[in-house]
Amino acid sequence: MLLWILDNLTAFSTDALTACGKITPRAALAAGVSFLAAVLLGPRWIAWLGGRFCEPIKSDSPDIARLHRGKQYTPTMGGLFVVAAILAAVLLFGDLNNIYLWPTLFVVVGLTLIGIVDDVVKIRSEKKGISARRKLAAQLAVAVVAAVWLYHLQASVPDGLLLHVPLAGTPISLGWWFVPLAVLAIVGSSNAVNLADGLDGLAGGCLLAAAAAMTGLIYAAGHAQWAAYLGVPRIPQAGEMTVLAGAMIGGVLGFLWFNCHPAQVFLGNTGSLPLGGLLGVLAVIARQELLLVVIAGVFVVEALSVIVQVGYFKWRRRRLLRCAPLHHHFQLLGWAENKIVVRFWIAAALCALVGTASLKLGTSDGPPKVAETIGKEAPNHPAGKCVFQEPRMARTIAN
């Protein structure tokens, strides 16, 4: 909407108004509006959810059920107002003509609907939600559609099907392997965040660290000079996803306002599935699926702890950890909930720092190289051969 307003105020345009149309100011505005929407509307959402959807304690571990007994009347499905805040901010400040916006929003909305159904079944029945097979099948359906959609968008981009390998100088060309890798990144990230959502503020704080790192990566991928400087695949128009990433950061911050211990509301699958999926989509667009494993290291370890626990139990008929996911293991060791959460936040911040720092390792230091810019050449310009960009392209590609 902001871009439409600026386009229709050309007669009154000033340098300040023009600057507002660039990506970084719009991302900051999206983060601010998303945060305020979550904080200001949160109490009403929580009151509405509290009368209808309270968290049932259905853990297989009697000890975990005992520790969490006091949380059974806490409203859940708080992801509803987080996703709503993100969508509102994107519609206000995003470029609705951007080619990557709609497949990304398709994933967010699709996984939100799956999460709603899963949470409602868990609350309204004795089940723990829809069956694991049905939930995974629904997630795969959403991810496959998005992956094929993104493949056709990026197949025409020179670096669109390249996989950036951390610490390696040469990326890998994927071809059609782009699709299964994208599906794995979206579904894996979605489920990993869902598994980590077990303590007050845990998933939200770790999401902030991973989202902040991914915001920098997606901006660099869409910026010609920074992509050349960091040696990452250059994806035109990917920088617009910075606005969506900023909205995600603002929305999660607003949610943490109410989710810090003792939590007034839980994220639920309604929020953890789409936020994790959004993290995966951003990595796919930026061509950083492998780096996502490092940046989202806490979520990866949480997911691996469940896989290892199940596999070890089937093999040896005993548990390797006291309980999985990993944060429950530390709970049963006697760690206070706040201590676990803060230490996991620290680990998430370190993972994000290591992931972003690894971009520059193995590349030569020096000033950013000026990559080819999309536009119209003007060879007779007094400053020499230069490029004039179309107004909208200048906003969405260069910043």
Describe the structure in your own words.
- The chain has 399 residues and is an all-alpha fold.
- It has one domain (22-368).
- Helix content is 64%, strand content 3%.
- The chain is built from 17 helices and 4 strands.
- The protein has helices at 2-7, 15-20, 23-50, 62-67, 79-93, 101-124, 132-154, 178-196, 202-222, 224-230, 241-259, 268-286, 289-295, 297-316, 326-332, 337-357, 391-396, and strands at 162-163, 172-173, 376-378, 386-388.
- The chain has a two-stranded antiparallel ribbon with strand order 1-2. Strands 3-4 form a two-stranded antiparallel sheet.
- Strand 1 (162-163) and strand 2 (172-173) form a beta hairpin.
- The longest helix is centred in the N-terminal third of the chain and has 28 residues, at 23-50.
- It is globular, with a radius of gyration of 22 Å.
- The two termini are 19 Å apart.
- The relative contact order is 0.15.
- Mean pLDDT is 85; it is low at 366-399.
